Amino acid sequence: MTKYGVVVGSIREHSFSKGVADALVAGLPEDAEVSYLSISDLPLYSQDYDADSPAEYTKFRAEVAAQDAFIFVTPEHNRSISAALKNALDVASRPWGENVWAGKPALVASQSISGISGVLAHHVLRQSLVFLDMPTMQQPELYIGNVQNLSDEEGHIINTDTQEFLASAAKQFVTFAKKFNV
To answer: Which residues form the NADPH-dependent FMN reductase-like domain (predicted)?
Structure first.
């Protein structure tokens, strides 16, 4: 059984990113073990903590290490990823030489209320994942624009075509992840 970690880059209640993540998870096999990793309580990364990490860092790093593959869903904040998501990437990749993301396959999706669909955040995240040594599925590219028109007031994707597209992408990710013995 594959363990899929889900990292939602928005910490907002009823976030559209969480809705996209849920629609992706719906496409995973029934026996998949899925864990949503919380990033909202991580103190800002500081190298000063490398010698004596806060308990939140230690817990998060262990949760990342326990996963076989990752689904990342990011909003676009100022043409980049959210500060919370960047912080989570940093926390689990440090101290230097102890990167627990390494080697784990990744799926990236972005969403935005604009028509450009979080494209820039998507590519910023991919660039970071390359550095973190995470093989990332290239196709299909998951840019979800005008997400507010596809979702209900709680952020759930309600558009049937979008639900089917995201579930199909998750099925493709399962095949992709298997190439890396997960």
So the answer is: 3-147
Q: What number of H helices and E strands is found in the chain?
A: 5, 5
CATH architecture of 3-178: 3-Layer(aba) Sandwich (3.40)
In this prediction, what percent of the chain has a pLDDT beyond 90?
96
At position 72, the amino acid (one-letter code) is: F
Helix (H, G, I), strand (E, B) or coil at 72: strand
Residue extents of the structural domains in the chain? 3-178
DSSP 137: -
Query: Using CA of residue 131, residue 79, residue 18, residue 13, what is the dihedral sign?
Result: positive
Distance, in Å, from the CA atom of 70 to the CA atom of 73, rounded to the nearest integer, reads: 10
Q: What is the DSSP string of 56-70?
A: HHHHHHHHHHT-SEE
